[in-house]
Amino acid sequence: MTRSTVSGASARSRARRSRALGGLVFLGPGLTYLLVLLLIPLALLLSFTVFRRGRFGGVVYEVTGKNFARLLDPLYLEIVLGSLKLATIATLVALLIGYPTAYLIAQLPRKWKTIALVAIVLPFWTNFLIRIYAWIILLSGPGLVNSTLLDLGLIDEPLELLYNQGTIVTGLVYSYLPLMVLPLYAAIEKLDPQLREASANLGASPARTFASVTLPLTLPGVLTGCLFVFVPSFGNFVIPELLGGGRSIMVGNLIRDQFLKARDWPFGSTLALALIAVLIVLLLLQAWSARRA
Length: 293
Fold this sequence. Notes:
Elements: H1 3-48, E1 52-53, E2 59-60, H2 66-70, H3 74-107, H4 110-121, H5 128-139, H6 144-151, H7 165-189, H8 193-201, H9 206-217, H10 219-235, H11 238-242, H12 251-260, H13 265-292
Helix pairs in contact: 1-13, 3-7, 3-10, 7-10, 8-9, 10-13, 12-13
Protein name: ABC transporter permease
Transmembrane segments: 21-46, 79-105, 117-141, 161-188, 209-231, 267-288
Domain ABC transmembrane type-1: 80-288
């Protein structure tokens, strides 16, 4: 091997090491963030699941499998199923509102599209709790909704609009509707208008064009939007606590209570990991459905 060949190989090796080091420099902050705030907490949760609760709370480091058996308790299964029901209803309502909204925004002139999209994301610029408390003020007995209905003579006494499952669904839809509209808008915006024109020229009605052309081509956006709404709705505990008055317990409330009230960290960790597992399955199903679509 000649000296030039050796020096060339050495230079290439140094270049590879330099590129690898540069990559680590840029990836370092993100990897550190994932390690410290995601992987280590998940590892701690996983380790707590096989231990038992102490007499006065906390963790006793004695291996047991009772935490996983408790997941099948009818009481907890009822809470999980109730959370699934509320999250599913909120997702469907958000889809029914979000799809026409995204479709109309996509048809606007470019100037008005920007204004409409800013209006959609504008609520996210306000603190989440402030927005939820605003709903409490609106829907309370002397609130704006009841006062308006009383002034119009439509009701004789204030309606009980707070502290029920309908109010929880309303809060979930209001909080996460932008997460449905934005991916739907992105999917609809990419549609080629000529496809719909060709469908109309072939004699298809607007409903047939929507079912055969528009909906199938925007299905990935539909799935993404549904996932974006369902996942935070399923694990939410603030809205059921404030708008539901604590009468409807969801999975998020159950996990919070296990850690902060019952101080049963092992079972709380088991519930949290079970919730994460369900969400991972949903993500995989969404990815599979999007590929098929």
